[in-house]
User: Which sequence fits this backbone?
């Protein structure tokens, strides 16, 4: 079905649209993830890294990176005829964090990307979503050459609550990214149901 048109006389389906954030540290693969899965050409706000930014942009572990997101990445994926996700990739560097409040407005949940070479870079994102009670999952982006650890070791290193989903993913692979996004939607729905139960109970 194409939006606004019906197939063989069926009434058009009005899709439910959900907003998902993609967060994490600098150079962790947020722009790549949005681009891998978006069915539209992603909107990117990348700029070249400059000498002026060298003292504040820690590129250790991602020395080959020469651009950075300064506002957001935006993409869209239709999971089913009646379910569309809008993806917003947040900027990774601390000096752009003021935009997170704006981007997180109305978000169903978030994917926090992590890199095992720089795990501490995702602490700020984990803390941000925990403090605002926004459901999230952590996706460990499996970079080539990065050390592999048992998932429970990563959970312990990140000090994640048992209820926070943690999975291995490849931000370049469409199916892997879809799995992570479906995981966020399911986790957010379960999280909302638990909160409703707690209020009514």
Assistant:
């Amino acid at each position: 079905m194409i939006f606004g048109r019906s197939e063989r006389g069926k009434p058009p389906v009005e899709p439910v649209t959900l907003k998902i954030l993609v967060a994490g540290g600098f150079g962790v693969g947020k722009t790549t993830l949005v681009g891998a899965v978006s069915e539209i050409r992603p909107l990117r706000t990348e700029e070249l890294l400059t000498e002026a930014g060298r003292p504040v942009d820690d590129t250790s572990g991602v020395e080959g990176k020469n651009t950075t997101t300064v506002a957001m990445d935006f993409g869209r994926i239709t999971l089913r005829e009646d379910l569309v996700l809008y993806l917003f990739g947040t900027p990774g560097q601390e000096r752009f964090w003021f935009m997170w409040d704006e981007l997180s407005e109305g978000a169903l949940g978030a994917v926090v990307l992590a890199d095992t070479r720089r795990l501490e870079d995702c602490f700020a994102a984990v803390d941000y979503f925990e403090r605002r009670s926004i459901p999230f999952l952590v996706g460990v982006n499996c970079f080539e050459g990065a050390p592999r650890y048992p998932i429970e070791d990563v959970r312990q290193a990140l000090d994640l609550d048992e209820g926070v989903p943690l999975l291995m993913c490849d931000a370049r692979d469409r199916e892997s990214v879809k799995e992570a996004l479906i995981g966020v939607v399911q986790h957010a729905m379960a999280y909302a149901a638990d909160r409703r139960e707690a209020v009514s109970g």
Observations:
- Confidence is low (pLDDT under 50) at residues 52-57.
